[in-house]
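Form 7-S
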Amino acid sequence: MEINYSKVYFIGIGGIGMSSIALYFLNSGKLVAGYDKTKTDLTQTLINNGVHINFNLNNIPSDFMDCPNTLIVYTPAISNDNIQLDYFLKNGFHVLKRSQVLGLISQNKFCIAIAGTHGKTTTSTILSHLLYENNISFTSFIGGISENYNSNLIENGQDIVLVEADEFDRSFLTLKPNIACITSIDPDHLDVYNSAKELQETFKEFADNLEKDGVLFKSFDLPINGIDYGFSPKADYSVENYRVEDDCVYFDVKYPNSLCKNIKFNMPGKHNVCNALAAFAICKNLKINDDDLVKSFETFKGVKRRFSYVLKSPKILIDDYAHHPKEIKAISDSVYSLYPTKKIMAVFQPHLFSRTKDFMDDFAYELSKFNEIVLMNIYPAREDPIIGIDSKELLNRIDNNKKILLERDDLTDYIIKSESDVIVVMGAGDISKEVEKIKNAILN
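Output:
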C-alpha cells in the first residue's frame, strides 16, 4: 500500500527498526527527518544519505510542521510524555507506531514475518541474503546490520516484504503474513507481558494472523502447530552431520523426500545453524533449489554483533548482542565448543532493570560458566532504576571466584592484564562502543 504523504518525520529515528523504514521512505522519494537523543552509527548513516536529524527535543524542522502532508512515526521506546510526540498528537497530525507502518507497507504484498524472542534478526538476515543471491524480488527490514550489505534495509524489488515481527509491545499483531516463522518463545519483556503464558498466547495470536493458505515454520520444541525445524530427527527439516572446522560449521539438511548435503555456514553455534535451517525451509517453500542455496550460504558473512569476530590474534575478541540468559547460554556453548582448551572471559552489560530483575538468577547461572566474568553497570534504555536491582547484586549471585564489576574507564586496562585467551563482549546497550578500544589496546 502506498503511504500518501510526501514527508515522514520519525521520533526515535536512530533505532535499528526505525532507521530501516526511514531509509525505505527516503529511497521512495519522500522527504525524511527525525529526532533522536543520541548520535550513533545509524544516525550518521541516515545523515550521510541526506536525512535531517535533530538531537534537541525543542527543534522540529519547519518543513515538517505541514500537517496535511506529514506522517509522524514513533517507536514504542518513546514515552507518552515526549514533547514532540505530544505536540504532533495535539495538533492533529497522523501519528503511527513503527509496527503500524510496517503493517501498511506489507499490506497487499506477499509478506514473510520472522518472529521469536531470540534468533529473528539472524534468521531474517540469512533469509535476506539467500533471496538476494537467488534474485528474488523483495524488500527486507531487519533488526541488525548485514555484514554482506552493511545495512538493515535490503532492497531487490517489491514483490515480497520481509520483516522482523517484534513481540515487544505486541507490535507483530499488525502483520498478516503469508509465511511466518517463530524461532523461540522464551520468557522476555515481562514488563509488557504479565507472565510467560501471556507471552506464549500472544505468539499464538500472531500465528493465527496468517493469511488464508499461509504457512508457519516453527522451532521443533514450540507448542504451536506448524512445519517444524531443528536438530531433532523427528523435525520436518532436520540438521544432520553437524561439524565444526576452522571456525565454520558444516551440516546437511534432511527434509521431506530429500537430503541437501554439505552446507558451509560462517556463523558458529548450533543456535545459528537453527536460524539458517529456518531460512532454508522458507526458501524451499519459495521453490529455490538446493544447489543454489548451498552456494548462497557459502557467501553469507554474518550479522554485526551476532557472534562477530573482531580479532582472532593475538587474542580472540568476539562481539555479541546477547542480552537474555538463553542467549548467553548459546554463546557459552558455542565458544567452549570452538575453544575447549582456552580461558574465556565474558564481559557483560545487563540491559534493562526489569529484565535483570526478572532473570537475575538465570543470568548469574549462565555467566558463572565462563572462566572469568566482567560485569558493567545496567544499561537503563527506557527505564528508571529499580531499588535493589543493580550489577552489584548480580555479581554477588555469580558462583565464580574470578569476577569483577568495572566502570567503563577501567575495562580496557583490566582486559589487557587478564590471562584470558578469548574475550566475549555481550549486551544490547552501548557496550559495543568499547569493542574497538579493546581491539586497539590488544594490538598495541
